[in-house]
Write a structure and sequence with these properties.
rod-shaped, Histidine-containing Protein, Chain: A, 3 helices, alpha+beta, 108 residues
């Protein structure tokens, strides 16, 4: 009876280990997919950028879209002046965690 019990626990441990490894690999990042931690970090960066743009009285936050992937912030949308584009990029670069800024904003 003892021998059967050891085999059962070994199989159970192997299944548990396989599930654990699959879970960990599912959370890993690739060149085109961010991991769970990166997703949360990028969400925080995006929120900080949006808040900073909203707090700037010379910018219309509804005109500017913000997306972040692996610390690279992409700004897009149609704005009223080149000064608004420059200010949005400047503000974004000052946010902690921003690695670089891709400016895809266009003038109206």
């Amino acid at each position: 009876m003892k021998h059967y019990s050891v085999k059962y626990y070994n199989k159970l441990a192997a299944v548990f280990l396989a599930i654990l490894m699959a879970s960990l690999l599912g959370c890993a990042s690739t060149a085109t997919k961010e991991g769970t931690g990166e997703y949360l970090d990028n969400t925080v960066i995006t929120t900080k950028v949006k808040a900073a743009i909203f707090d700037e009285p010379t910018l219309k936050s509804a005109e500017i879209n913000v997306e972040t992937f692996k610390g690279v912030v992409q700004l897009s949308g149609f704005v009223g002046s080149q000064a608004s584009i420059d200010k949005a990029v400047e503000i974004t670069r000052q946010i902690n965690g921003v690695k670089s800024v891709k400016n895809n904003m266009q003038l109206k």
